[in-house]
């Protein structure tokens, strides 16, 4: 088994997923995952660059950051890559007027967007707004367009809240794709453009960063497709029965009885192992970046 220095050679930054990695959401609030507040603090005291990457689409960026701050995290809006602000830029650049199938919690993000006479559909995790009436309206808008455009804020299958697993936007996107015979444009993980945008904000190349998330496809697989290394936690939506070849080359952590963690390939790790191992590693001298 390769030593820590070899596994992490050249790493200069960490991208952290939020939901399921830092906290589990609840109605209007959330609960920090054990050790996550301290882990973020230790990472920020290190020489590593840190950026938070989320597909959150039920809370505005401001509301999400305020919640995390209330839970004890050292985080600011400028450190977060989120899909709603990026979607607004795309809409303005392309002159698109969306029918918004979104949660009321992020509607304020689109206040400056023209939604009259829609020529596209923007879909996000709309929660209770995923009614037949609203889905059918989105379907009708798309079917009336000569070149239908469907933009999705992420494409996750499900996520975890304190009350249990919650169906995510991906299932509804698939329904519209199937009904309309189109493919959605994804703004958020696992889109390569999403990860490239985050890396650009950090001033890093893909080989210099590690993504940590609970989603084997959106977080781990998406990061790998961009040339990054990736870690999966056993918190959040993690399931032992997950098997996805797209993420077969990830680096993972494994617990030891002493609470000291070693690098492995091919098996997931617990949240505790990440908290200990990353905190431990950030105190060590950093290896010289490699380009190979």
Automatic annotation (TrEMBL):
Please name the InterPro entries in this protein's record.
HAD-like_sf (IPR036412), HAD-SF_hydro_IA (IPR006439), HAD-SF_hydro_IIA (IPR006357), HAD_sf (IPR023214), LHPP/HDHD2 (IPR006355)
Q: Name the cofactor(s).
A: Mg(2+)
What does this gene product do? Phosphatase that hydrolyzes imidodiphosphate, 3-phosphohistidine and 6-phospholysine. Has broad substrate specificity and can also hydrolyze inorganic diphosphate, but with lower efficiency.
Question: Which protein, by its recorded name, is this?
Answer: Phospholysine phosphohistidine inorganic pyrophosphate phosphatase
Recorded catalytic activity of this chain's protein: diphosphate + H2O = 2 phosphate + H(+)
Query: What is the enzyme's class at the highest EC level?
Result: hydrolase
The UniProt similarity line reads: Belongs to the HAD-like hydrolase superfamily.
Highest rank taxon of the organism: Eukaryota
What is the predominant subcellular site recorded for this chain?
A: cytoplasm
User: What EC designation does it have?
Assistant: 3.6.1.1
* Subcellular locations according to the entry: Cytoplasm; Nucleus
CDD domains the UniProt entry points to: HAD_PPase
Please state the gene responsible for encoding this protein: LHPP
């Amino acid at each position: 088994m390769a030593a820590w220095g070899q596994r992490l050679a050249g790493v200069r930054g960490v991208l952290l997923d939020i939901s399921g990695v830092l906290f589990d959401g609840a109605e209007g609030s959330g609960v920090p995952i054990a050790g996550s507040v301290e882990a973020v603090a230790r990472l920020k005291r290190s020489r590593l660059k840190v950026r938070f990457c989320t597909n959150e689409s039920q809370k505005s960026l401001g509301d999400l950051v305020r919640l995390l701050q209330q839970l004890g995290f050292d985080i600011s809006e400028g450190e977060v890559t989120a899909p709603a602000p990026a979607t607004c830029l795309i809409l303005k650049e392309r002159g698109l007027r969306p029918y918004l199938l979104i949660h009321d919690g992020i509607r304020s993000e689109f206040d400056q967007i023209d939604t009259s006479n829609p020529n596209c559909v923007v879909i996000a995790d709309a929660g209770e707004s995923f009614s037949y009436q609203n889905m059918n309206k989105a379907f009708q808008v798309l079917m009336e367009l000569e070149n239908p455009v469907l933009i999705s804020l992420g494409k996750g299958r499900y996520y975890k809240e304190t009350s249990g697993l919650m169906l995510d936007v991906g299932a509804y996107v698939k329904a519209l794709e199937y009904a309309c015979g189109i493919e959605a444009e994804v703004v958020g993980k696992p889109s390569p453009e999403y990860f490239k945008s985050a890396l650009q904000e950090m001033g890093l190349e893909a080989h210099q960063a590690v993504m940590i998330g609970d989603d084997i496809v959106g977080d781990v697989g998406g990061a790998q497709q961009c040339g990054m290394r990736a870690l999966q936690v056993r918190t959040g939506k993690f399931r032992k029965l997950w098997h996805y070849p797209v993420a077969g080359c990830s680096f993972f952590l494994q617990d030891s009885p002493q609470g000291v963690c070693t690098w492995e390939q091919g098996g997931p790790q617990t949240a505790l192992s990440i908290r200990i191992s990353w905190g431990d590693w950030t105190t060590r001298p950093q290896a010289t970046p490699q380009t190979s």
